[in-house]
Design brief:
alpha+beta, 44 strands, 5-stranded mixed beta sheet, 8-stranded mixed beta sheet
């Protein structure tokens, strides 16, 4: 029996007996084929990096069905007789790129590129879908990639690339791209998409394959009927462990399922009775293995029952399209029944009155209502749902003139799916003239075993006319049974959603004097407005090709999936794989490591610990200027997540499984209790010293400032949590032992030079025997700086010990637990200010949680103060304590300290505004710097007076964003809407950056092509692109010979190699691109000096290629290297930006929608405005995640509990600003900068504070309204909105009892009438 399938048109045939049925399609693609575009990022179906197109042929209908699936969850055996297309199957560098790849490149929609192949396949699939229905529309374009995550771009350019294929789009409305220059006609400038010449997704040879019938002899079998399945199950008298499989998507949530070894897998997707969709006069019957996507399509077709369309719309919010395409409706319900999965499907079908047909070995065939099914004991292993029946209601309940109402609700961190609900609900009611005849009310997912019906409330409401009092009583009843179980997160918030949804549903039935006026009715939740944007980008030809918006180097390669990341490097012969065993105790003695059941798991060859460090080496995992840190815990663990050992096995899966089975024996007797808070650290004087030269300087005399103040706020507290990097490519390295006791390590890192020193010190060998190679990184954000060092070093120790290549690709959960993120901190401040709002003094005490080891935490104080000094505080004093705790060491994440500093400043400004009852915007304006105060606060970094652009930018953005006009529109909106409130806010930023030494080398080859090496690493920030432009300018522009105008096309930047390019320093701090450009410019100047004499000799014009031939003939040295050292210029300078954001908050759910963001950012004379624009938008959206969405939560001992895409929510297409306008200011006045350019990588992240501040404004309005209802007049406007301002946080501040309070107020108003 063979398994036959095609990948990108190639035929594959495997003997079924040789295939492990638990192998996923992703594992097969990555480890057994040359196709590497399919990336592993989360391994749980939550990110879209591994999406492929799966095509099935129907021999009867002679049709091919194409849909996307998540290859990390799809079992290889389930693709028999299917065809798989990956991004390199759409197009590639050999056969020509696909139009999709060209458009992703041309719209600047790929930065690190790790997510781009998955995005390309998702878009391709959406285009195929539209070909079969209507034309591709803008709305479909926006949904095309809605389940795919990207951490670099901020999504706007990706959505524009998708929209460029829409039939109803005006190309002029799309964002900045390389196809269409502003002002030109753009109609025919896009690369053509010819839908007729589509990629052949299903090759002819597969259609002719004879499908062999499976006898059930193998570990994988596919019965063809219910009877056959029954025989199979009954014959299993030996009690083999069996798994019934449909889509296998449940393993994304229940990961322990993957570790289980089943002896037999039974594929139930080929059983005709379970695949049906039948409509009769009573309703519709759906087979249990029908995929959710097919259920949605079928329900949309049934027009007689309005309810079905609403069910379908709700189902579109379940998971992502590539999960719905393979996950089955029955599987979802079985998970809800057997494992208490917080299902949406169960809730909405419960309200719809569905029933299920089941089959069990003990009870045979049964039909039960869904309610009975959910309440029954958990299904046994081989019990099965065969079909689901959903009734037509309009037949049963047609009273004369009565009306059937049906609505579904869910509150979740992402509006359009790919997030579990905090609570979901669905209500069906038959009403006649405001009277409820009967109703069905279902609630689920709020921390309960399964979805339930509110029977008491149903009975109470039946026969009643809906009034405020009736609703109030119903809600009181409801509170008795919608009670989440103990231990559920956000308990009170979840409970508060049920009354809100019930109120939304019935409120329209209440008679008001003027029906539906005064905004008292609940507006129907509008779908999010379409995304739109504008970009104002200056193009500067002065230093051509520098300043041109050239597309990112290698973007098409990234889109096709051919760009090679560390884990794509083919495994060397005899390669082994590692996985980390980490500590789960914060402070304990390590007594030993064993495996569960005391047997060594499959494939394990060694467990590498500190004992395996060579005798001449040291147990060092990180080595840099502030000191060293251990690689493995020795006798004591210092924190949760500390590396104890690396288990090495023959495959990555075996290594990961073994690490999960490892049991570490701890002992905590005779040890002090661990330090788990900054307060505890201060009490026990557990502090790191801060070097005096890194300690920021105080400004002015605060005691004098305080005495001059009219008002003071004393000892106010702010707390800030952490944020995880969520780079798409997790930590990864490959170490290969080489001759003469040397070693080569391929590492995905930002700091090759430091890894080089760490590996040499750990192995005890000279540095000339270590070589670190980094080509590109799939996202870094600071997380691949310090935290990549121990990963590479551990692989090197294992490779050295076993004398075989060792690689690791850290799984997402381990990465989230071991890597850490931003520094949490506690801030206490006192501020003095005049009655006008002018601040006279600010005193701060800041406790920073550095974790158990120092890392680069010493940089935090000066970064915090650098961003906080954006306002003129009059006088400023502070006391920093760098706390040493038994918590995970924190890393420096994009804008480390600066983002916290800018937020602290805004929180103080808002507090001052509240206490004076003034607008925060006025307080910001009055405290903006003049150039004199700027120079006082920032000293040399302030630059020349004409470089200070912030105050003029503040006014300019006020005009271009219509700020004043929108403030009054927001006020009007809030007066006329009870249940939705808006806020708008304008926030400035100042961001100091430093230049540092950076090396470069430029060599010209004999055919005139050029190869460039730089110390900086390409992380997606466009460093290679800017470097190529600089070489084009510095050689072509200076030599002015024929053929140099297209010199950029002849240039290739190659990977970083620490033996070739020494003193590579690190890539970070936003200035590595300009530093690398400065270095190659110096190299080019040397080459120009060497080539100039030859040009002069030639007498007349000479072509570039001829010049180079002559130079080679005369042995001119055409390789130049140099080290840029920023001595002659001030090494620090300031970056400026302003943002205006407007948000709308739904007071029933706490959902915040960012309606519009306008950004004005000064990037000097941009080296590449397209790259800088991408950095501005991407950084802003990452900041939006920090301020609004991302909760990086640990348990009481410091173990991260939000350890995957199910619990950690980064921004998605549906959470970015609906209108996103960016203007780059070309201030171009910076003679001392690199060609007058400025940084763009980190500063714009701080602008996302504007969204948080706007949300606070909206919450303030909601609180005012609530106090009016409750008849309270105290100053409830002094409040703090925590970070991140998630839905539960916002709802709690708006009032968890807001609906109850409104009803009470209404009743009392009505009773007075």
């Amino acid at each position: 029996m063979s398994l036959v399938f095609a990948i990108n048109g190639q035929r594959f045939e495997l003997d079924l007996s040789s295939v492990d049925p638990s192998t996923t399609l992703l594992e097969f693609l990555r480890y057994q084929t040359p196709f590497k575009s399919v990336k592993l990022s989360c391994g749980e179906g939550g990110c879209g990096a591994c999406v492929v197109l799966l095509s099935k042929h129907d021999p009867v209908l002679k049709t091919v069905e194409d849909f996307t699936v998540s290859s990390c969850l799809t079992l290889l055996c389930s693709i028999n007789h299917c065809s798989i297309t990956t991004s390199e199957g759409l197009g590639n560098s050999r056969d020509g790129f696909h139009t999709i790849h060209d458009r992703f490149s041309g719209f600047h929609a790929s930065q690190c590129g790790f997510c781009t192949p998955g995005m390309s396949v998702s878009l391709f699939s959406a285009l195929l879908d539209s070909k079969s229905s209507s034309e591709f529309t803008v709305l479909e374009a926006e949904k095309a990639v809605s389940g795919n995550l990207c951490r670099c771009t901020g999504y706007r350019p990706i959505v524009d690339a998708c929209k460029s294929f829409a039939a109803d789009v005006d190309i002029e409305d799309l964002g900045f791209n390389s196809f269409c220059k502003k002002g030109d006609s753009c109609k025919n400038s896009l690369p053509r998409f010819d839908s007729e010449k589509l990629v052949c997704s299903f090759p002819e040879f597969l259609k002719d394959e004879i499908k062999s019938i499976d006898s059930g002899m193998h570990r994988w079998c596919s019965p063809g009927s219910v009877e056959e399945l029954q025989r199979l199950l009954e014959a299993n008298s030996d009690g083999l462990s069996m798994k019934l499989v449909a889509g296998n998507t449940s393993t994304g949530y229940y990961k322990e399922e993957r570790e289980r070894n089943y002896e037999k897998y039974v594929d139930i997707t080929r059983i005709p009775e379970m695949k049906v969709i039948r409509e009769n006069q009573n309703g519709v019957e759906i087979g249990a293995v029908v995929t959710i996507s097919k259920v949605i399509a079928a329900l949309k077709e049934i027009r007689v029952e309005k309810m079905f369309g609403k069910l379908a719309a709700h189902m579109e919010k379940i998971a992502a399209r590539f999960i719905r395409n393979f996950g089955s409706i029955g599987g979802n319900l079985v998970m809800a029944q057997r494992k208490q999965f917080p299902s949406d499907m169960a809730t909405i079908l419960l309200a719809a009155g569905a029933s299920v047909n089941t089959m069990s070995l003990s009870r045979g065939l049964e039909k039960v209502t869904l309610e009975q099914f959910l309440q029954g004991p958990p299904l046994e292993a081989y019990d099965l749902v065969l079909t689901i029946e959903i009734p037509f209601w309009h037949h049963h309940h047609h009273h004369q003139s009565s009306e059937l109402l049906f609505e579904t609700y869910r509150a979740a961190p992402r509006p359009n799916g790919s997030a579990l609900a905090y609570l979901n609900a669905a209500f069906l009611a038959q009403v006649k003239d405001r009277m409820v005849i009967n109703c069905r009310l279902a609630f689920g997912a709020y921390g309960t075993k399964h979805a339930i019906r509110g029977k008491e409330v149903e009975e109470f409401l039946s026969g009643k006319v809906i009034t405020h009092n009736v609703l109030s009583e119903a809600i009181t009843l409801l509170g008795k049974f919608v009670v989440p179980e103990e231990g559920t997160s956000n308990l009170a918030y979840r409970s508060s959603l049920a009354p809100g949804f019930l109120f939304k549903f019935f409120h329209s039935l209440i008679l008001t004097e003027k029906p539906f006026s005064n905004g008292y009715h609940l507006d129907v939740p509008k779908p999010l407005p379409m995304l739109s944007s504008s970009q104002h980008v200056p193009i500067n030809d002065e230093y051509f090709p520098v300043g041109e918006p050239v597309t990112k180097s290698g973007a098409s390669l990234q889109a096709s999936g051919e760009a090679v990341y560390v884990d794509d490097i083919p495994a060397p012969q005899n390669c082994l794989y590692g996985a980390f065993i980490y500590s789960t105790k914060p402070f304990a003695k390590v007594k030993g490591i064993c495996f569960k059941e005391n047997s060594v798991p499959d494939g394990v060859l060694a467990v590498i610990s500190y004992k395996d460090v060579p005798k001449d080496g040291q147990n060092i995992g990180m080595k840099f200027s502030f000191g060293t840190e251990p690689l493995f815990a020795e006798d004591l663990t210092l924190h949760v997540g500390q590396c104890i050992a690396l288990v090495v096995a023959d495959t990555q899966r075996h290594a990961d499984t073994a690490a999960n089975l490892a049991v570490v024996e701890y002992e905590t007797e005779d040890l002090e209790p661990p330090i788990l808070s900054v307060e505890d650290a201060v009490k026990k004087s557990s502090l790191f010293e801060i070097y005096p030269f890194l300690y920021p300087q105080q400004v002015g005399d605060t005691s004098k400032g305080m005495s001059e103040a009219d008002h003071r706020i004393l000892s106010s507290e702010i707390r800030l949590g952490s944020q995880y990097f969520f780079y798409m490519e997790t930590q990864t390295a490959l170490a290969v032992p080489d001759e003469d006791n040397s070693i080569v390590v391929y590492s995905s890192c930002q700091t090759p030079q430091y890894i080089h020193s760490s590996v040499a010190a750990c192995l005890g060998i000279p540095e000339n025997k270590v070589r670190i190679i980094t080509r590109r990184v799939g996202g870094g954000f600071g997380g691949k700086a310090v935290k990549a060092m121990p990963v590479a070093t551990a692989c090197a120790v294992a490779a050295n010990k076993l004398q075989r290549p060792v690689r690791t690709y850290v799984n997402r959960k381990t990465d989230m637990i071991m890597t850490g993120g931003r520094h949490p901190m506690k801030i206490t401040y006192s501020v003095g200010f005049k009655s006008t709002g002018k601040i006279t003094a600010l005193e701060l005490e800041i406790l920073i949680d550095a974790g158990a080891t120092l890392g680069l935490s010493m940089l935090m104080p000066s970064n915090i103060i650098g961003a906080l000094k954006k306002y003129n505080w009059g006088a400023l004093s502070f006391d920093f304590k760098l706390c040493k705790t038994n918590l995970l060491s924190k890393a420096i994440m994009r804008a480390p300290g600066d983002v916290q500093g800018t937020y602290i400043a805004e929180a103080i400004i808002e507090n001052v505004a509240s206490s004076l009852s003034l607008e925060a915007d006025a307080i910001r304006k009055i405290n903006l710097h003049t150039y004199e105060s700027l120079a006082l606060f920032y000293k040399d970094s302030a630059g020349e007076p004409h470089e200070y652009t912030l105050s003029s930018m503040w006014d300019k953005l006020g005009v271009s964003s219509n700020f004043e006009e929108r403030v009054s529109l927001v006020r009007e909106f809030n007066e006329s809407n009870i249940w939705r409130k808006r806020g708008i806010s304008r926030v400035p930023i100042i961001y100091p950056v430093s230049m540092f030494a950076t090396p470069g080398r430029v060599s010209v080859l004999s055919d005139g092509t050029i190869v460039v090496e730089v110390g900086g690493i390409e992380l997606g920030q466009g460093l290679w692109t800017k470097v190529k432009q600089m070489v084009g300018y510095a050689l072509g522009g200076m030599l002015q010979c024929d053929g140099t105008e297209n010199l950029v096309e002849k240039i290739r930047v190659v990977q970083s190699d620490t033996l070739s390019m020494v003193q590579g320093n690190f890539t970070g701090g936003s200035t590595t691109s300009e530093g690398s450009c400065a270095a190659v410019r110096l190299c080019c100047e040397t080459l120009v000096t060497r080539l100039k004499p030859l040009m002069e000799k030639s007498g007349g014009p000479i072509s570039w290629n001829k010049l180079i031939s002559q130079a080679y003939a005369q042995s001119v040295n055409l390789s130049a290297s140099d080290l840029y050292t920023p001595q002659e210029t001030p090494t620090r300078y300031l970056n400026y930006g302003v943002a205006v954001s407007e948000v709308e908050v739904d007071l029933v759910t706490g959902q915040t929608t960012v309606l519009q963001t306008d950004i004005l950012y000064d990037s000097g004379k941009s080296l590449n405005p397209a790259v800088d624009l991408g950095q501005i938008e991407g950084a802003f959206v990452q900041g939006l995640g920090f301020f609004m969405l991302e909760e990086y939560i640990t348990d009481s001992e410091g173990l991260v509990v939000t350890d995957g895409t199910w619990t950690y929510k980064i921004p998605t297409v549906d959470t970015i600003p609906r209108q996103f306008n960016v203007e780059i200011l070309n201030s171009g006045l910076h003679e001392k900068r690199v060609l007058s350019s400025k940084a763009s990588g980190e500063p714009p992240l701080l602008l996302a504070a504007s969204v948080h501040c706007a949300t606070r404004e909206a919450v303030k309005e909601a609180r005012k309204q609530l106090r009016m209802w409750k008849g309270v007049n105290d100053s409830g406007l002094m409040f703090q909105l925590p970070v991140p301002a998630t839905m539960p946080v916002v709802k709690e501040l708006c009032g968890l009892d807001i609906v109850e309070s409104y009803l009470e107020w209404k009743s009392s108003v009505n009773s007075r009438l």
